[in-house]
Amino acid sequence: MLQAKKIGYRNSGKWLFRNLDLQLPPGEVVGLSGKSGSGKTTMAKVLSGYIQPAEGLIELGGESIVKTVTKVAHPIQLIWQHPEQTINPTWKLSKLLEEAGASDDYLMEQLQIESQWLSRYPHELSAGQLQRFCLLRALLTNPSYLLADEATAMLDTVTQLKLWKLLLKLAEERGIGILAISHDSYLLDRISTRRLDFSKLAD
Ligand SMILES: Nc1ncnc2c1ncn2[C@@H]1O[C@H](COP(=O)(O)OP(=O)(O)OP(=O)(O)O)[C@@H](O)[C@H]1O
Ligand SMILES: [Mg+2]
């Protein structure tokens, strides 16, 4: 179980959210929506260890994980709303993939990633291709949880549904808990076992 306990975060002295509580059981797909600018992406960055909360605790299996794990192999992987913000633009895809672990032909095929892309730089892919590559990289680290922040918004409907079908399968088979953050209510209704409203999670 992933639990956020009364976490708070502030930007330039102003609280963005406080007393935020969240529980994500393994294998569950939770759909989170909420107003633009309310702090969903910031919360996802806190949960996945990119930034530290000003207060509160994040626990995985009952143990605090704040400051205890490295980013690359973090058990809570964030699929970024803007994938280009998270990867080193001067590294080729092959090198970016090496960080994550052994490759997986099944996942490459399911995510429709072509092996020739590996000799390219990130800016030599389309936004949707880069997002699928980032998803591969996250999955290769065998995460316990995936935080998908508008992860499929730039994909066409067919690719989007195919990708979610894969993620739901992995959630079930590997017990990966997924937090799907999106403004697309129709999508969240189709994929989630539970829906949450960000404004109700925190003060
Ligand atoms: N690095 C930063 N420094 C200062 N303020 C920031 C920073 N990143 C985000 N913010 C501000 O924090 C607030 C929350 O942003 P966040 O990206 O978490 O919202 P969101 O709920 O994900 O919005 P959206 O639905 O549009 O993706 C916004 O007011 C934003 O302008
Ligand atoms: Mg956001």
Secondary-structure blueprint:
Blueprint: E1 2-11, E2 14-24, E3 29-33, H1 40-47, E4 55-60, E5 63-64, E6 76-79, H2 93-98, H3 105-110, H4 127-140, E7 145-149, H5 157-174, E8 177-181, H6 185-191, E9 194-197
The protein binds adenosine-5'-triphosphate and magnesium ion.
Question: Can you describe what's shown?
Answer:
- The chain is an alpha/beta fold and 203 residues long.
- It contains six helices and nine strands.
- The chain has one domain: 3-Layer(aba) Sandwich (Rossmann fold), CATH 3.40.50.
- The strands form two sheets. Strands 6-7-8-3-9 form a five-stranded parallel beta sheet, sandwiched between helices.
- A hairpin with a 2-residue loop joins strand 1 and strand 2.
- It is globular, with a radius of gyration of 16 Å.
- The mean pLDDT is 92.
- The protein binds adenosine-5'-triphosphate and magnesium ion.
Which key terms come to mind for this protein?
203 residues; alpha/beta; 5-stranded parallel sheet; 4-stranded antiparallel sheet; 6 helices; 9 strands; 29% helix; binds adenosine-5'-triphosphate; binds magnesium ion
